[in-house]
């Protein structure tokens, strides 16, 4: 509920603070005193766009701030979490308009966009003004009203759970069917590619290894000549190097004890002799394994040509990439084989869920049909009470394809003059009629729907006497469960207030400013008496005011 509203430097308001009661708050005042200004200021913290000419003092900024108590309001808590905003015991909405006309919005002192402020404002305040397009004319609200009276909350949750699962599985089925169609288009080509790769029977790194082997074979004669030359020098020449090293070692060994450096030289010669002898043996072994093989070269060249052709065809660079592609093609072709089983299983699931959805939708439709006649009767009776004796509401329920909220299209139709020509609300109902109709409906569903603060701006247009009294009674009953703020000219409604605020103009030198104050009991009696009998009410008007206030 709205705990406090602070307005500074807005139109004719220098600075005012309003602290509404938790139940029925009535605002009265002379025409032109500034009651609509209050609603305009409130609209700003509910996200409406601002007129740059609203500053009473062009050198100061305008500030409108609303404090709300939102404990146990799940919708508000979810909004704050989703938008990463602080959650406090008191929710603070603020709007600032700078002298240059620039506007800023805040939620709990955090800057936010106008869209965010408006979205949160819709969860906090339900504002009904003359000639507004009200929620009442929206299909979603109309459905909520019928569902609340039919007490469909649990059934709808069950339905929506199954419906969402059905929709999800239906989408998945469609994707699988599209995938199968695509697979079937590609299957023959993929099968050809796979057979081509499989026929080559590649092994990891094969083409790279064959390329290396081909280079070796192509240069085998030169390599063998080089190796033979090394063996010749080391072991088979007239003076082989290995033999020469052995002789050097033998010559020095006779003198190794005669100089301290000779043993190390002999040791190094011995190591060189052993190493060169080992090299000679390794060269010999290698030489024995290298040969020029024309057939092998032709075989490798043929295999490499087939492999390089596939590398180029698939735009990859190595053997392993071809093997990976082969695995992918195998997987795709296996998917083609498996997808039919998946489609059949999902088709059965979707069919079963569709039947569940239809069964629950029929149950919901039956409950709605049952709730509609008493709802129509109750609203039509209330309309007579609030001064609309010829007005009637008719709820039209049309079947449609199952959707998120069932298989019904709900529309409220209205006949204001007992013509039996029912039409859409927004086509035939005036602002005052819509406001009173909304009051009647919300008084019926208040115990079922978590309504925010309700604000009615001049709901009493076109009524007086007993009708105004009945509007006040209904509003008083509704205010037992919800905070209501109502701007009115009717004393019958003012007499029902839990808190009565009076708007007036105050002239200071050449400046006229709008002020508002909470009236005490005696002031309330006088204000209502003046609404009845003019500026100087008589004793009868005062007594009637007391009776209206039941004091």
Automatic annotation (TrEMBL):
> GO terms for molecular function, please?
ATP binding
Query: Which keywords fit this entry according to its UniProt record?
Result: ATP-binding, Coiled coil, DNA damage, DNA repair, Nucleotide-binding
As recorded in UniProt, coiled-coil segments are 149-186
Name of the featured protein = DNA repair protein RecN
Give GO cellular component annotations, separated by semicolons.
bacterial nucleoid
Organismal lineage: Bacteria, Pseudomonadati, Bacteroidota, Chitinophagia, Chitinophagales
Recorded hits in Pfam families, A to Z, give:
SMC_N
Q: Name one GO biological process term.
A: DNA recombination
What does this protein's UniProt record list under function?
Answer: May be involved in recombinational repair of damaged DNA.
The UniProt similarity line reads: Belongs to the RecN family.
| Residues in RecF/RecN/SMC N-terminal domain copies | 2-511
Q: What PANTHER family is this protein classified in? A: DNA REPAIR PROTEIN RECN (PTHR11059:SF0)
Is Coiled coil one of the keywords UniProt gives this record? yes
